[in-house]
Amino acid sequence: MSMHVTVGPAALTPFLAAEPVQASTGPQILRPFARIKRWPRDQDIVYQGNSADDWYCVISGACRQYMVRPDGRRRIVDILLPGDFFGFTVETAHRFAVQAIAADTIVASYSRSQIEAAADADPLVARAIRERTISTIARLQEHLLVVGTMTAAEKVRAFLSNMFDRLPNRRGSGITLPVSRYDIADQLGISAETVSRAITELRVLGTIHLGSPRNLQTIEPRYLD
Amino acid sequence: MSMHVTVGPAALTPFLAAEPVQASTGPQILRPFARIKRWPRDQDIVYQGNSADDWYCVISGACRQYMVRPDGRRRIVDILLPGDFFGFTVETAHRFAVQAIAADTIVASYSRSQIEAAADADPLVARAIRERTISTIARLQEHLLVVGTMTAAEKVRAFLSNMFDRLPNRRGSGITLPVSRYDIADQLGISAETVSRAITELRVLGTIHLGSPRNLQTIEPRYLD
DNA sequence: CGTGTATTTGAACCGCCTCAATCCCTGTGG
DNA sequence: CCACAGGGATTGAGGCGGTTCAAATACACG
User: Fold this and answer.
1) Whose CB has fewer CB within 10 Å in chain A, the N or C terminal residue?
2) What is the domain range of residue B208?
């Protein structure tokens, strides 16, 4: 079964020297398979328990991947920004729901069976998918590190810093947070009030500068890590 | 470069109906590439900052994937059990260290470039890797959910439940926890004392039964989720 | 320009962390 | 097989940080 094929170095593309994600289209090589759809704010893109037949890529806007616990608490496991993939599951059903955070969020969806067939036929497709799954792992691990942090202020600072790096910062006027304090709270596992207090604290300390509650102008490089 | 091979439906294996991991060898199809190595307890398998040239699979024993923060705190981002892969990175260097928890932990390593070349040549190899990356995502998301839980007792209960499902339970005599209270604490983001108190609480409540501190005989099915 | 929602602030309570001491398993050597 | 040593686990007391409930303020959208 295993084929000991000798493959020259020329066949190796540098790992994860992937083309930057075209924010408007998703990965180039998967474009032929993409079904583009636009979603209103707070609309459900994937329901918990949905059959996991598709993979997705955020094109613009933002999404939250989450689960609502029986006690009513919402746990956000991933904030998805343009270029981020989601929908990779081990089970045949989605364990988490995904919904648009921003108005007019654009998401590409791909038939899993179709993409997998394409991956079988074209190693470059397989590599593109592999890169995305590995990026997802990196994102989750980073988040895990943040959530594990002790103090609330440090959690919030790390979260904001992460957003600052991932979101476009045009003309140096800072970023626009796509998420509410409640979203931040549910992702960090703390209360919204504590998020607010932490942000106030960071502002007073001069660690961050806000233009408005959703506009983060500057943030000091991490002093912990 | 890309090989547009036409592959009929017969060539498609059902997604993630993968063969169960041979605990003694790792995935069958990757076996020809595996370099097997045995590690003593607390020995470093991967150092933080190491060049990420290899992927790994735990064959037997257990590992912790972690980072030590500047303040000296250790954050464990993943507990790796037989069948679990690690070493998937976006960067060219490992962001986390990995070390053996159990004595005589056996780990298979694979040259990343070699495996990627094999994946390019054989879609089944590519699928095997994809399955492992997706399993890693599932494990991290599960963990994220647990860490985000509010009370310490529930975190510990979820952790133990998770271990109970993942570890072999021979003759119904329960599982042997490969990790110390400190490991559990560092993974859940709480103190070791709190872990101990939570375990005592769960035992008093009858939620769990311990044969010894490391032997978990029974655990009630999750009442939350 | 007004209304509804998001955000901020306040006060009291509770749970977890910290520091410390004790107990008890486990593995080693006699 | 037993005694002992050493690390792991448990328990205790006190303080702090975060949650909760509640209210005021600020922002964004129509």
Assistant:
1) N
2) 149-219
Quickly count helices (H) and strands (E) in chain B.
5, 11
Q: d(Cα A179, Cα A102) in Å, to the nearest integer?
A: 8
Assigned domain for B153 exists: yes
B180 touches strand D (CB under 7 A): yes
B153 touches strand C (CB under 7 A): yes
Q: Does any domain span residue B12? A: no
Q: Is residue B102 part of a domain?
A: yes
Contact B92, B52 (CB under 8 A): yes
Q: What is the CATH number of the domain that holds A95?
A: 2.60.120.10
Is B132 in contact with B77 (CB distance < 8 Å)? no
**Do A156 and A112 share a structural domain?**
no
C-alpha closest to that of B81 among B96, B53, B102, B66: B102
- Residue B140 and residue B79 share a domain: yes
**B151-174 residue pLDDT tens:** 999 999 999 999 999 999 987 889
Of A75, A134, A144, the CB nearest to B88: A134
Each residue's pLDDT, cut to its tens digit, for chain A (225 residues) gives 333 332 223 222 233 333 334 455 689 999 999 999 999 999 999 999 999 999 999 999 999 999 999 888 999 999 999 999 999 999 999 999 999 999 999 999 999 999 999 999 999 999 999 999 999 999 999 999 999 887 999 999 999 999 999 999 987 889 999 999 999 999 999 999 999 999 999 999 999 999 999 999 999 986 544
CB contact under 8 A, B89 and A140: no
Our count of domains for chain A comes to 2
A15 → closest Cβ in B29, B116, B144: B116
- Cross-chain Cβ contact A16/B90 below 8 Å: yes
| Residue A147 CB lies within 7 Å of the nucleic strand C | no
Partner A contacted by B134 (CB < 8 A):
yes
Q: Please report, rounded to whole angstroms, the spatial distance between the CA atom of protein residue B135 and the C1' atom of nucleotide C28.
A: 41
Q: Cα(B169)–Cα(B181) distance, rounded to whole angstroms?
A: 20
**A63 with A137, same domain?**
yes
CB B146 within 8 A of CB A147: no
Q: State whether A137 and A60 are in the same domain.
A: yes
Name the residue in chain A with its Cα closest to that of B18: A90
Establish if A224 belongs to a structural domain. no
Co-location of B158 and B124 in the same domain:
no
Nearest CA in chain B to A76: B145
Same domain, A51 and A116: yes
Q: Which of B97, B23, B34 is nearest to B66 (CA)?
A: B97
Chain A partners within 8 Å of B136 (Cβ) = 137
